[in-house]
């Protein structure tokens, strides 16, 4: 996931490049500082991390990025840092370590620390309120996995729960001072969507075999004509899920951040505080939608036998349709 973001965002420009270009008479160092200073917002943690280990990361990128650019030819004609020094690269408004990657690493660190602390305080005899709240969330997710995936749904609990924790914390990070939600960047939500897509297809191939998984795209009717008709449609539909998951999450979080920022710039007191519950609701709701849709996709490839479409599939399909309707 991080590699994907580094490949796609190695050339991320710190917003405000135009502002830095306006000071072209200044030195390269001053221009680089101006690009960060006039940026839409670059958190201090991003600036510091790029200052501390940015040069080392830049040297690694200099070794691997130009060949990747020449081989793939999808990111641009050449890597923006080719033939430049670290100072020239940052002066042009680029960041060796993109903002969303730093923010996501911060979220991962917070998640590991918090879960480690919670795990150390678990008690069977006298659970505290935090543990009881945590258990409610676990039981809710367990029930959803049972309804949407089936009896074997609990084996996917670690993956789905990881999605939920990381996405929720990423969404909420934007509500902290001097922070930006990683999910407000499309590259991050795209990486999450691709991860979900790869995982449920991997599960389908592992449980049903490659041919059995491909047969799933032909539909429930054992007709060669219908299968030939439905197969390309199902392939396109499944590929579209990547964009559906990523754009939905990105659009809502980015839009909420932009709205809050615009209102805060006009009214700096009271009103921004009143908007925080809206941001909290958006963060929780988008996390829930991403998790539910991921579980629905897992349910499709896990119940891949004839029972899924016959007697066993009655209740399962009803639950599936209800979940999809709710998520959308």
Walk me through what this model shows.
By secondary structure, this protein is mostly helical. It has 2 domains: 2-97, no CATH class; 106-327. It is 74% helix and 0% strand. It has helices at residues 2-9, 17-21, 28-37, 44-72, 86-91, 99-120, 129-148, 157-173, 186-216, 224-266, 271-302, 306-309, 313-327. Residues 1-39 and 304-317 have low confidence and may be disordered.
Number of domains: 2
The first-to-last residue Cα distance is 26 Å
Helix segment tally: 13
Q: How much helicity do the residues have?
A: over 70%
Shape: globular
Number of strand elements: 0
Oligomer: single chain
List the helices and strands and how they pair.
Blueprint: H1 2-9, H2 17-21, H3 28-37, H4 44-72, H5 86-91, H6 99-120, H7 129-148, H8 157-173, H9 186-216, H10 224-266, H11 271-302, H12 306-309, H13 313-327
Helix pairs in contact: 6-8, 8-11, 9-10, 9-11, 10-11, 11-13
What is this structure, in a nutshell?
The protein is mainly alpha-helical.
List keywords for this structure.
single chain; 328 residues; mainly alpha; 2 domains; 13 helices; disordered N terminus
